[in-house]
Amino acid sequence: MADADEPDFPILCETCLGPNPYVRMTREVRGAECKICTRAFTVFRWQPGRGMRYKKTELCAACARLKNVCQTCVLDLAHGLPVQVRDAVLGQQQAVPTQPSNRRDHVAKLAAQQSAGDAVARAEPAARAELRRMARTAPYYARNRAHVCSFFARGQCTRGATCPYRHELPDGDAELARQNISDRYHGANDPVARRMLARAAPRTDRLAPPADASVTSLFAADLDPAVTDAALRAHFSAFGELKSVVVAAERRCAFVNFRTRAAAEAAARAALDAGGRPVVAGAPVKLAWGRARPKGPRPEAAGGGGSSGAYPSQDPTAEGSVKQGS
């Protein structure tokens, strides 16, 4: 039986492992130095699928368990997210010394203790829901494609169709070209993580009260399955009387319609205090103001020849009225 430092199988995410259930691997005991702790470790090498590039493990199993990451792509095993994103959402960070003299002892000491996966299990429900929202729902096998041929980019590749690399021009993104394994593992200065966090940051400008005082509805998006009609009513009724709550479960959104503008503004202010994402039924909800109803008669009343079936506003209960001519 292999020892703990010489595992029989690597710690991999589903994307790096590939879609082939009969994948074949080579195993080299103490074949390379871990990119984090610099200890010699068992290296695995395989091809995830036809037309994909060969991949190998970059970290030792102890370092991967410590951060609950894949030994190859160094992304979180449970959600497929960069460590920096996961730690930012959880509001905590498990620091690992960056100096080689201290790093090996630290990894050896903590290898048998809890991993970052335990921290996710202990996190607040809202943080876990946010991680599920940001995570990929399926493996992203395009990440296993061959690298771009540097000779082709310079117009010097002579191998044509037999070249194992992609004959495409690089996108020229200088920031993403500066990625490295150490920064991704420690959750610092990761350009991919910075972009994901910037996209996920709530836009508080959507909660600025619209000029039209007739707007009394709020639009809730990115709803977790746990957020039901009853949960929305229980949360928003604290701010004032509700006219209706309409949930579109298949689109993961809802419309919360208040009786008064003051109640809607009170709910928007509370959401703004929560960073634009109030927590409903233990899950964060993205909130924005509804849109004003268009003025004038409806198309079918103006002789337009039928209706498109769409409501004229974000309040599905407001059918409007048509002023009949004399």
Features:
326 residues, three-stranded antiparallel β-sheet, 9 strands, 27% helix, elongated, disordered C terminus
SS content category: alpha+beta
| Strand residues, percent | 5-15%
What proportion of the residues is helical, as a percent range?
25-40%
Characterize the largest beta sheet: strand count, sense, and whether it forms a barrel.
Answer: 4 strands, antiparallel
Which outline best applies?
Answer: elongated
Looking across the biggest beta sheet, what order are the strands in?
A: 5-6-4-9
Overall pLDDT confidence = 79
Q: Which segments are poorly predicted (pLDDT under 50) over 5 or more consecutive residues?
A: 301-313, 319-326
First CA to last CA: what distance?
93 Å
Gyration radius over CA: 26 Å
Overall strand count: 9
User: Could you state the oligomeric state of the chains shown?
Assistant: single chain
Q: Helix tally?
A: 11
H/E series? HEEEHHHHHHHHEHEEHEEE
What's the short story on this structure?
This protein is α+β, with helices and mostly antiparallel strands.
Question: Could you please describe the fold and organization of this structure?
Answer:
This protein is an alpha+beta fold. 27% of the residues lie in helices and 13% in strands. The chain is built from eleven helices and nine strands. It has helices spanning 14-17, 61-67, 83-90, 100-110, 116-122, 125-134, 150-153, 181-186, 191-200, 229-236, 261-273; strands spanning 25-33, 40-46, 55-56, 217-221, 242-248, 253-258, 279-280, 283-284, 286-289. The protein has a four-stranded antiparallel sheet with strand order 5-6-4-9, covered by helices on one side. Strand 2 (40-46) and strand 3 (55-56) form a beta hairpin. Helix 3 packs across helix 9 (191-200). The chain is elongated and about 70 Å long. Residues 301-313 and 319-326 have low confidence and may be disordered.
